[in-house]
Amino acid sequence: MAARGRRRSPSSPCLGGIAITTPAPAPFEPPGASSSAEIARLAAAAGLQRVHILAWRDLADVEAGGSELHAAEVARRWAAAGLEVTMRTSYAQGSPPTGARDGYRVIRRRGRYMIFPAAVVAELRGLHGPRDGLVEIWNGVPFLTPLWARGPRICLIHHVHRDMWRLVLEERLARLGEMLELRILPPIYRRTPIVTLSESSRRELIEQMHFRPELVRVVPPGIDPRFSPGGEKSRTPLVVSVGRLMPSKGFDALIRIAAEVRDSVPELELVIVGDGYERDRLEQLVSDLDATGWVHLVGRLSDDELLALYRRAWVVASASIAEGWGMTLTEAAACGTPAVATRIAGHLDSVSEDESGLLADSDREFVAKLRAVLTDHDLRVRLSEGARKHADRYTWDATALGVFTPLAEDAIRRRARRRGRGR
Predict the structure, then answer these.
(1) 214: left (phi over 0), alpha (psi -120 to 50) or beta
(2) β-sheet with 295-299: strand ranges across
(3) Quick one: 79 exposed, middle or buried, by C-beta within 10 A (0-12, 13-18, 19+)?
(4) DSSP string over 19-80
(5) 288: buried, middle or exposed (CB in 10 Å: 19+, 13-18, 0-12)?
(6) What residues of the chain score a pLDDT lower than 70?
(7) pLDDT given at position 176
(8) Three-state SS for 286?
(9) Which pLDDT score is estimated for 2?
């Protein structure tokens, strides 16, 4: 899409009457028209009817999180706009190998590691059916689509995994993971349109992975309309944190922080929502701190239960070390609950600092800011009002259109180049 103030070149391809050039993408703005109608219009202009999505996991997976929710919300809206969408993921325990969800097809085959070569082979052999466009979700390990995929494509990267490698792998393998992510693999994607969730993540992708700035576009995730204010707040200070129980989410740090804050806020209660392989270690930490009476690991909750918990909470907290976006923070914000979170890429955008929440550079600062929000009623009221206003900006309809647009633009560019070569 052309940048403001840039003249249209006579040779520029055109998408629905809009010239396509290659300056840095303009900031994301929610659409004014119906996103479904706009997606359908762009699809017709670009010749995109059948779109395949390659993802590590499906929303049905027991470890599904924000990335899987994002893919499902986008795919659902593309299908509603009339596109034939196929999502290929790894096997999900308890779910059939093939099925349908919200109008799009899901193929779940192979395990956590074999999904990558298996999906590539299936696409090369046409086992998923014909496609007009391809979306790759790079979640730590890529599908290497630039090396084998023809036709329009984009790559969705939520965030840089740099520090996460050392939390989940031994030292030697962690160094290999970092080298692959930061040095070896990015040049393969030098001509690929990249979509990420936040301006802070975009900066990291450009500075650390050296992607071309003009090809990295920001499209924030949305918030389901069901997340809204309602009911009454807890009578005592309630802190809620939501996410997969894995090292990068920093739940161990958050538990220790809450224990220190509780010295001056003795009624503080911490509820952690989610499951994962860190559960046993976190339960042991809670026991060691003699915190079983006020720290609760409640596992996965239903949508209604999570909504009620967001509404009752005084604060939603995240001590994560890496996020493309803080989706749970904006969901809680829509319910009028402010955030206290680590100052990392993703949080810098999902939290409007000193408007919808507070950000901390260290555990010590986190303690001070969490204590401040829990003990200062006026501050909490002001941040609550700011949180609702901040959350109003984000809708899944806008996200679905924002992610589809660069795919359509890539299709138009490729068509223009083919016409140019045929002259």
Answers:
(1) alpha
(2) 295-299, 269-273, 238-242, 315-318, 339-342, 357-360
(3) buried
(4) E---SPPPPP---SS-HHHHHHHHHHHHT--EEEEE-S--TTSTT--HHHHHHHHHHHHHHH
(5) exposed
(6) 1-33, 164, 167-168, 422-423
(7) 83
(8) helix
(9) 32
Closest CA to 240 of 373, 135, 360, 125: 373
The pLDDT value recorded for residue 17 is 36
Report the distance separating Cα 2 and Cα 411, nearest Å. 15
Give the burial class of 125: count Cβ atoms within 10 A of its Cβ; 0-12 exposed, 13-18 middle, 19 or more buried.
Answer: exposed
Euclidean distance between CA atoms 306 and 363, whole angstroms: 26
Find tokens 């890496």 and name the residue.
322
The DSSP line for 248-283 is GG-HHHHHHHHHHHTTTSTT-EEEEEB--TTHHHHH
- pTM (2 d.p.): 0.85
- Based on the number of CB atoms within 10 Å of its own CB, is 415 exposed (0-12), middle (13-18) or buried (19 or more)? middle
Q: Give the chain's domains with CATH numbers.
A: 14-30+42-222+396-411 (3.40.50.2000), 238-391 (3.40.50.2000)
Tell me if 340 sits within 8 A of 354, measured CB to CB: no
Q: Which residue do the tokens 């740099």 mark?
A: 162
Give the span between the Cα atoms of 58 and 412, in whole angstroms. 30
CB atoms within 10 A of CB 265: 18
Look at the chain and count its residues: 423
pLDDT at 58: 92
Which residue has 């023809």 as its token pair?
A: 150
Q: For residue 109, what is the enclosing H or E element?
A: none
Handedness of CA 254, 280, 240, 375 (dihedral sign): negative
The two structure tokens encoding residue 128: 């998923």
Q: What pLDDT, on the 0 to 100 scale, is given for residue 1?
A: 35
Number of other residues whose CB lies within 10 A of the CB of residue 420: 10
Return the pLDDT at 25. 42
* Alpha carbon 246 to chain centroid, angstroms: 16
pLDDT at 50: 98
